[in-house]
Amino acid sequence: MFDRQSKLAAEKDHTIRSTTKDLLAVRAGLQDSEDKIARLDAELQSERDLRIRRTKELSDEQAKSQGRHEAEMRHIAKKAEDVQEQLDLLNDTLSRSRACTQSLLDDAHKPRLRNHATVIAPDDTGQPPPPPLEPIPDVLTRTPDPITKPRSPFTPKSLRLTPERNSRDPTRHSRDLPRQISACLDRISDTANTWHAGAESLLETICRLEAERTREAESRERSERGLQEELAATQEQLRTTQEGLAATKEQLSTTQDELAATNDQLCTSQEELAITKEQLRTTQEEVSDTRRELYRGRETLQDMKAHAGDVKRELEACQVKLKGVQDARRAGIVKFFDAVELLRRRRADLESLRAEAEASKSKHSQALSLSAMLRKRVMVLEAEVESLNRNQKTPPAHAKSKSFFPADTDPIPAACSANIQAHDSLYMELSTSLRSILNSSLPPSPSSNLFPNSSDDPPHTILGSDKVPLTLHPPERPGLSTTPHAPPPSQLRIPSPPSRTRKCSIASLPVGSSVGSVDWPPIGSTLQPSGKIAEQDGGVGVRVSETPSG
Questions:
Q1: How is the chain split into domains, by residue range?
Q2: How far is residue 300 from each of residues 285, 306, 313, 314, measured CA to CA in Å?
């Protein structure tokens, strides 16, 4: 089957190649015919353009010559009109001169009439007498006619004489008049002869131009007839060329029809060949697909076998991991129970620590209250000592050298000494546990002091837990002493009263709370406790202000 289809495809290919060759040959002949037609069209168009250009040139030349002849004829006609006008003017002037001369000749021997009135007796008819005769105008002195211009060549020279020559002398007029008249007539006849000669020359020129115009018209007619003959020949040649072109076009259309039929056969053969090739390709693809599916099935089987081995190995590894995870889970449960037990113990320890912290807070508050009372008492004693010093009017050096304890030479009264001793005995009765609490809660470090290190600060007033204001004098190194004896008088510092005092108001402090380190803030600020063990529901608020003393 494949061999038969291959042979059929080879035969169709051979047929298609032969048909293609014939088609190419027909196309080449058609292209040659089209080129020939295009060449003939180009030649015809060039010939037509040449004829049109020649016709246009002849028309332009004819129009130019006609315009030139018309301009010449207009110019000659204008000249003829001017000559005719001059001849008419000359004839008019000549006739007037002749009439004037004749009248002068007739009246040459008559006496001139003067300008005076002549009385004539009335006749028997009863008619009024005729008017007096006017004087005869002098021809030599009369104004020229408006038609004759003063500067015209037709005006006699006698009419253009000066007033000296044209005076009213009758004797002179009688002698020069015939000579002047004859000279004027001679000049007029010469001028007339000249104008007649010019008119004859103009007429000859007009006749010559008319003859030239006639000859040019005949030559133009001959040229037009030649152009028409050439145009007819060109049209005949064009008609012949068009007939040949029509025949060539018919042949070309026939060839195109044959070519279209051949193209249809070629398309049909190509379609059949394409269908055969498609069938062959489909069969080959089916065979290839079958082979690929078989090969793919083999590969899939091998992959499935390999995958089964991998799954088996993974299952064994997962079983081993599951055992390890179960063991780890048991160990984690044991550790969780141990952690829960440890957490319960830690909570119990935390509760005990909280109770101890509450007790420490209570002890700390008691120590703060006692410290405030002691400082108050110290300040009262200092005030009493100062008052006694002022009363005794002793110098400061002698006062400083006095002993704090009562002696035989001490000027302090016995009552004051008794009060001081009672207070000292009260101070010495503090228990050892309270001293240890005070020492542990208030370490002698600058960062944990309740008062600043500067000894130049003014005294401060503190509102204690019993709502009694206390004035504090900050020492250089504040701290609580654990000795059973009071400090010597030499260590007491009695500062001079400052002009202003700084007050620090402390709010009520609940029992069981504690405060941390407190530093003296600037004036106008509010203090808050910074201790780590301070409760969230209570604290100390300190307001610092400065007021003038007195």
A1: 365-548
A2: 22, 10, 20, 20
